[in-house]
């Protein structure tokens, strides 16, 4: 940090948030400013702390499943998948192929929904209000599928340990295909609205640059890491839930700036549509639930499972002492880890860029604070 | 050169504006006029709870097994039961369901072995205070009665 400020003016400390609309929730950023230039940023988190990990220690394994939906509420299905996979690893069980295929379809749909929300709010922060209305319309199609399948739109509780609770409804395949056909041309439409727009380019290029080395140092994962040019996707690196059967590409960027992250996420939505189309074509028959005892009592031990959530690597670490409740449950939330890079990214930027950088981090405060 | 001309004549901006104005047509309006026009929620929707009764004789279907209360993560269901000396069966006396703490996860519904407890399609459960959020057996058996707004 420089010793002297511009024109020897005094350093200004500005509280951004927790009520600021562009902090996507209740994040408080203490900015140190030299005029309009940011010298450093401090995050104050915990306004939404509910003690989810502690709740997990006081619930049985099945009872805790609805709580994980409430961490990253934009991607509740992915959270549920990660938790179920972690407990299944403890139990040495595996969901039947039919359940795995349905899980892939729903998680990828949720990835699109999450990215759509990100696109709408990120564009809104920067000043493009139009996309927000359009992404909500497309998200509605996806949420309707969730509602028809499991009865809830946001906090879905779609998966159970060992497979699925609900059989697919009649017409799920058609609905999913229709949603895919509906979303894919709309993504091009968003690109037409934003990608070439000069204001959009001006606000995003070379803002919040985070190169590959810094990403690795901070443990930043997900689209942010890929935008820095690292081809790392847990769906390819350590496939889970049958992702090895599906063909898709890992989109990467080059600069690691905000514009690259935007392009990576847009491309990721297209790849998700590709995965969904492959998965929904061949949902195998058979049971939807593995043989899991009614009272889940995993053997003594520990398990860590991480999945590629829309925001990055989402990990669940569960320690079992052989009772019906976990001894310790730890969540590795992608938003929380990605947020640590905020200070580095905002240094030297302008105050208006901070809004763009928080938007590109794609944080959900429910997950940051837990 | 091509890129230069695109920049000069703001082609990308105009393309974006075309998308915006394209959706001004009334055909593309998707807004739901909520209280006047009610959404049709899915069959599996998890909303206000109901305790089903046998339509033939009006007796409750609940066998007072207490499985829903055990399944509930929030421990908000209280089942009261009494043993009937003549039939030697447990019979339901009270049933309390605290919807102010409920998160509608559906675990109680899944646990019920006789499909007595059911989460219905009613979603209008908001209120100005907590009175009336704790449902007793009578209210649960009557089921939700959504308000009808007149326009």
Task: Provide a descriptive summary of the structure in words.
The complex is a heterodimer of chains A (370) and B (151). Chain A is α+β, with helices and mostly antiparallel strands and 370 residues long. Chain A has one domain (7-369): Cytochrome-c3 Hydrogenase, chain B, CATH 1.10.645.10. Helices cover 48% and strands 13% of the residues of chain A. Chain A has a 3-stranded antiparallel β-sheet with strand order 1-2-3. A 3-stranded antiparallel β-sheet of chain A has the order 6-7-8. A two-stranded antiparallel sheet of chain A has the order 4-5. Chain A is globular and about 70 Å long. Chain B is 23% helix and 17% strand. Chain B is α+β, with helices and mostly antiparallel strands and 151 residues long. Chain B has a domain at 49-142: Alpha-Beta Plaits. Chain B is built from 5 helices and 5 strands, in the order ααβαββαββα. The mean pLDDT of chain B is 82. In chain B, strands 2-3-5 form a 3-stranded antiparallel β-sheet. A two-stranded antiparallel ribbon of chain B has the order 1-4. The A-B interface holds A 59, 62-67, 70, 130, 134, 137, 140, 144, 147-152, 155, 157, 165-166, 169, 189, 192-198 and B 6-7, 10-13, 15-16, 19-20, 23, 30, 41-46, 71-73, 103-107, 110, 119.
